[in-house]
């Protein structure tokens, strides 16, 4: 993949980092490291937008909460953000959903090309997995995902919204909305479809998304650090439901 030669040069996938790649956009370089290929300016703009529009600095979100609580405990910033990024791999809301929907879109496209009806493919996935990642959103079941329209509009302006995986993602949404599931497409499905149409494989897409929540984490850490120590998400004792021994008085034993 490359090598570091102190005092001389650094090699990144066969290219001199400080000569051939020194003016590269950071995301372009990051993807080059993952995929081994460069992406167009239009593709980079859309992939940047996928990151930007999911950067929520809300400490109530599961991974941001880790960063905030670490700040409240006066941990270091890097430990706080690293721990928050680690929890971003959650199976319900995080990176595991992203790779699952990317994998399903690839399998569904192959099945349809082989002649299977999409309704049958969707029904089988629901039967086996009891759901499809990227569809349905527990925090806002009936509302459209607020990020989709923004990123889709940019993809349309860049000429990147008409790919096979994007069309497939919307066709799956139609099937789910027409059936008893009533699930809208959320951001995970749209982002995966756009990336797949740019040529990213599911694992490449998963690695690309690793820092997607990152920009929203430092504000949560900083805010918690600016408050008194341990003042983030405090709970009154009365708010705790406790079943166990009653409060005990500690008698001083005679010496």
Q: What top-tier CATH class of the largest domain fits best?
A: Mainly Alpha
The whole-number mean of residue pLDDT values reads 91
Return the string of H and E elements: EEEHHHHHHHHHHH
Annotation, overall tally of beta strands? 3
Instruction: Provide a count of the helices.
Output: 11
Structural class: mainly alpha
The shape is: flat
Q: Can you tell me the residue ranges where pLDDT is under 50 for at least 5 consecutive residues?
A: none
- The spatial strand order of the largest sheet comes to 1-2-3
Can you say what the CATH homologous superfamily of the largest domain is? Answer: Cytochrome P450-Terp, domain 2
Residue share in β-strands: under 5%
Helical proportion, percent range: 40-55%
CATH architecture descriptor of the largest domain = Orthogonal Bundle
Largest sheet: 3 strands, antiparallel
What count of domains describes the coordinates? 3
Q: What's the Cα radius of gyration? A: 23 Å
Distance between the termini: 71 Å
Please name the CATH topology of the largest domain. Answer: Cytochrome p450-Terp, domain 2
């Amino acid at each position: 993949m490359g090598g570091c030669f102190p005092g001389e040069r650094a090699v990144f996938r066969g290219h001199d980092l400080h000569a051939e790649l020194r003016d590269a956009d950071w995301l372009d370089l990051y993807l080059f490291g993952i995929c081994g290929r460069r992406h167009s300016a239009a593709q980079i703009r859309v992939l940047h937008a996928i990151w930007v529009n999911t950067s929520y600095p809300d400490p109530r979100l599961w991974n941001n909460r880790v960063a905030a609580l670490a700040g409240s405990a006066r941990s270091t910033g890097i430990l706080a953000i690293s721990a928050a990024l680690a929890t971003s791999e959650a199976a319900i809301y995080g990176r595991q959903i992203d790779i699952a929907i990317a994998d399903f879109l690839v399998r569904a496209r192959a099945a349809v090309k082989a002649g299977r009806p999409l309704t049958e493919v969707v029904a089988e996935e629901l039967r086996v997995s009891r759901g499809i990642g990227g569809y349905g959103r527990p925090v806002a079941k009936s509302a459209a995902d607020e990020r989709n329209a923004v990123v889709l509009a940019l993809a349309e302006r860049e000429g990147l919204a008409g790919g096979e995986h994007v069309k497939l993602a919307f066709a799956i949404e139609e099937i789910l909305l027409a059936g008893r599931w009533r699930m809208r497409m959320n951001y995970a499905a749209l982002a995966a479809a756009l990336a797949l149409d740019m040529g990213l494989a599911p694992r490449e897409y998963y690695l690309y998304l690793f820092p997607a929540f990152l920009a929203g984490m430092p504000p949560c850490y900083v805010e918690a650090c600016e408050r008194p120590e341990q003042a983030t998400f405090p709970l009154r004792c009365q708010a705790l439901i406790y079943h166990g021994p009653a409060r005990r008085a500690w008698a001083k034993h005679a010496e």
